[in-house]
């Protein structure tokens, strides 16, 4: 994941509601999948292990945040566990077949969460984050973003 991608994900996380956060985590997972494929093609074992570690951490975070008061949580837990095992197989078998299988399955799950997120009208999870406004000005090659600096951010003594 590039530095610019990390900054973009960080900015988006600060503005996201619960459903948006799930979608962002899926998008991060897909970027890590791309990193794994690139490391595999370059035969870079350290980058491969690192990419698998980060992808596994995202899937693990999905498992840890499930609410087991709902029946579907048990099914999602088993599904996420399957994908974590698929990642381990990438290292053991030195093949991207399992990764591509996981990517296809998780893309469908992402589409389902995306449909559900369209109905979520709740506000951002981070209440005291800076507001980002895009489109006020344009740079030579990109869109400039402005931050709304608030004097009341943080703790007051």
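Q: What amino acid sequence fits the structure above?
A:
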């Amino acid at each position: 994941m590039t530095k610019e991608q990390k900054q973009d994900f960080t900015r988006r996380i600060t503005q996201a509601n619960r459903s948006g956060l799930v979608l962002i985590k899926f998008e991060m997972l897909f970027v890590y999948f791309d990193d794994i494929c690139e490391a595999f093609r370059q035969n870079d074992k350290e980058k491969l292990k690192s990419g698998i570690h980060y992808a596994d951490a995202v899937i693990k975070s999905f498992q840890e945040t499930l609410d087991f008061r709902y029946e579907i949580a048990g099914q999602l837990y088993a599904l996420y566990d399957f994908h974590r095992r698929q990642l381990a197989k990438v290292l053991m078998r030195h093949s991207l077949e399992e990764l591509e299988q996981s990517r296809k399955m998780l893309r469908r799950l992402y589409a389902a969460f995306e449909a559900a997120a369209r109905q979520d009208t709740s506000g951002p999870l981070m209440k005291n984050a800076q507001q980002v406004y895009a489109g006020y000005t344009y740079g030579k090659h990109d869109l400039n973003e402005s931050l709304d600096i608030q004097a009341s951010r943080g703790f007051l003594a």
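Q: And what stands out in the fold?
A: The chain has a mean pLDDT of 83.
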